[in-house]
Write a structure and sequence with these properties.
The complex is a heterodimer of chains A (about 120) and B (about 110).
Chain A lengths: L3 E4 L2 E4 L5 E7 L6 E7 L5 E8 L5 E2 L8 E7 L2 E6 L8 E8 L9 E2 L3 E5 L1
Chain B lengths: L3 E3 L2 E5 L4 E7 L6 E7 L5 E8 L4 E4 L2 E6 L4 E6 L8 E8 L6 E3 L3 E6 L1
Parallel strand pairs in B: 2-11
Antiparallel strand pairs in B: 1-3, 3-8, 4-5, 4-9, 6-7, 7-8, 9-10, 9-11
The chains are: A mainly beta (about 120), B mainly beta (about 110).
Chain lengths: ~120, ~110
């Protein structure tokens, strides 16, 4: 149980285009999903908290107009990188929670590698 | 300083035990987690410990928590080559569901 998927797993796009990344909880309902960004050989940086049916909460320094988050259902959150630039190239990972209510454990997706040319 | 700190690298021989250490600063942490990340993949939850516990064992994995010193460790018994990966510790604070991650420890298991 507690499987989280992401789509696509890898995307290459041209500078100036927008890219949408999907995060799905496959076998449980997730009222909260989290979006992280990971640079090579670095830790995960929380970008935003996505709440079903309400606006996302962005971390300090994350541009909400550039990284659009939509959490329209209890099993799907999307991250859209708008007008992508090469510096947006990174590994984007989502997580969904709560899984087990007693631990509020977050389960992570396999990640999406974005390369902006 | 960083909220959660880990050593960068650990090299261990196959069959030996590995010990990965983590320190954190927030005494209000409720849960502490260990995640494993293999190259190009997402994070796999290995184990977690509630802050009022001292130890938790799950097969080859043993988690020790010293709440007084804010020190968490993960011991992997009989380390295998498949255990080579980056290991992240993370803390969940009392308020909210956000996790704060350490920088990750790269474990290399040599045959």
């Amino acid at each position: 149980g507690a499987v989280v998927s992401q789509h696509p797993s890898r995307v290459i796009c041209k500078s100036g285009t927008s890219v949408k990344i999907e995060c799905r909880s496959l076998d449980f309902q997730a009222t909260t999903m989290f979006w992280y960004r990971q640079f090579p050989k670095q830790s995960l940086m929380l970008m935003a908290t996505s709440n079903e049916g309400s606006k996302a909460t962005y971390e300090q320094g994350v541009e909400k107009d550039k990284f659009l988050i939509n959490h329209a259902s209890l099993t799907l959150s999307t991250l859209t990188v708008t007008s992508a630039h090469p510096e947006d190239s990174s590994f984007y990972i989502c997580s969904a929670g709560p899984g087990e209510p007693s631990t509020d454990t977050q389960y992570f997706g396999p990640g999406t590698r974005l390369t902006v040319l | 300083g960083e909220d959660v700190e880990q050593s960068l690298f650990l090299s261990v021989r196959e069959g030996d035990s590995s010990v990965i250490n983590c320190t954190y600063t927030d005494s209000s942490s409720t849960y502490l987690y260990w995640y494993k990340q293999e190259p190009g993949a997402g994070l796999q939850l290995l184990t977690y410990i509630f802050s009022n516990m001292d130890m938790k064992q799950d097969q080859r994995l043993t988690v020790l928590l010293n709440k007084k010193d804010k020190h968490l460790s993960l011991r992997i018994a009989d380390t295998q080559t498949g255990d080579s990966a980056i290991y992240f510790c993370a803390e969940k604070k009392a308020a909210g569901n956000k996790l704060t991650f350490g920088g990750g420890t790269r474990v290399l298991v040599k045959p």
